[in-house]
Fold this sequence. Notes:
The protein is an all-alpha fold. It is built from 5 helices and no strands.
Amino acid sequence: MRYQVFQAVDAALESQGLKIMILLRLSPIIPYNAINYILGVTSVLLRDFILACFAMLPGTVLYTFIGSSAGSIVESASSGSGNSSLTTVAIVIGVIFGVVGIGATAFYAKKELNSIINTQE
């Protein structure tokens, strides 16, 4: 067969669509628009696609937190308040934990996706 990898992915999406979709949405490596186009030619169920869209929320919350934290750092630095270094340290630690959390999730999501694809082949 010419497209064995694609057929394995299509079969995996048909049998475990929701699980794979959630893992893809949690992984920040592949852009969402590329995932959407690829899934348009597979046999993933619309229900699985819609439910998995909620898995984008952790990344969205992290990006919002990073943007808000950057604004807070700038504001505390420009205000000259006495607690600016404590605020900055707390915000930086929060951002680091958020990025590490998303990175760990992406790592395990990729590992699980690879194992699913390997079992389908």
